[in-house]
């Protein structure tokens, strides 16, 4: 699965030029090596050797990561980062948009956090195999990602 990294690179380079901030990216190479390089050195990358890029969070931003493992059975972990203390709500939906379960709704301190989902609905019953969405709300931001449960 390839990501379109151009908007992220442009944003990082602009922030570096305008605000004098320095950013790095972790680059995962096809041979299994990992390289951390300054964004200003992007022109030096040989893109044919890259098989994945790990995005570094921008300072002061809310970030929702992809759940892992994915696909999963019987449970999965959802990680997120928040820049300052605030209410966080994480809800799981089926592909039709029906709410399956609210995993979290409460105040969290700034930093990295994680919640787990055991593949059960609000009634404690195991849901069927399929694609599910997890929606995370923090302040004025809402981010959703998909995950797959395989039995």
Molecular structure report:
- This protein is mostly beta strands and 151 residues long.
- It has two domains: 6-54, no CATH class; 63-149, Immunoglobulin-like, CATH 2.60.40.
- The protein has one helix and ten strands, in the order H-E-E-E-E-E-E-E-E-E-E.
- The strands form three sheets. Strands 7-6-9-10 form a four-stranded antiparallel sheet, with no helix packed on it. It has a three-stranded antiparallel sheet with strand order 2-1-3, with no helix packed on it.
- It is globular.
- The mean pLDDT is 81.
Shape: globular
> Helical content, roughly?
under 10%
Helix-strand string: HEEEEEEEEEE
The fraction of residues assigned to DSSP E strands is: over 45%
Main sheet summary: 4 strands, antiparallel
Task: Report Rg.
Answer: 18 Å
Question: How many domain modules?
Answer: 2
Task: Give the overall pLDDT as a whole number.
Answer: 81
- Say how many strands there are: 10
Report the span from N to C terminus: 23 Å
CATH architecture of the largest domain: Sandwich
Low-confidence stretches: none
Top-tier CATH class of the largest domain: Mainly Beta
At CATH level 3, the topology of the largest domain is Immunoglobulin-like
Number of helices: 1
Q: Can you list the strand order of the major beta sheet?
A: 7-6-9-10
Backbone structural class: mainly beta
């Amino acid at each position: 699965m390839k990501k379109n990294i151009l908007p992220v690179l442009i944003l990082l380079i602009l922030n570096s030029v305008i605000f004098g901030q320095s950013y790095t990216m972790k680059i995962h190479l096809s041979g299994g090596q990992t390289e951390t390089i300054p964004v200003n050195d992007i022109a030096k990358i040989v893109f044919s050797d890259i098989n994945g890029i790990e995005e570094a969070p921008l300072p002061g931003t809310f970030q929702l990561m992809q759940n892992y493992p994915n696909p999963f059975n019987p449970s999965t972990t959802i990680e997120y980062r928040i820049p300052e203390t605030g209410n966080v709500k994480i809800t799981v939906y089926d592909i039709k948009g029906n709410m399956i379960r609210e995993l979290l709704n409460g105040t969290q301190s700034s930093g990295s956090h994680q919640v787990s989902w055991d593949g059960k609905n609000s009634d404690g019953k195991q849901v069927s195999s399929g694609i599910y969405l997890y929606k995370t709300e923090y302040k004025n931001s809402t981010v959703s990602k998909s995950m797959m449960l395989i039995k």
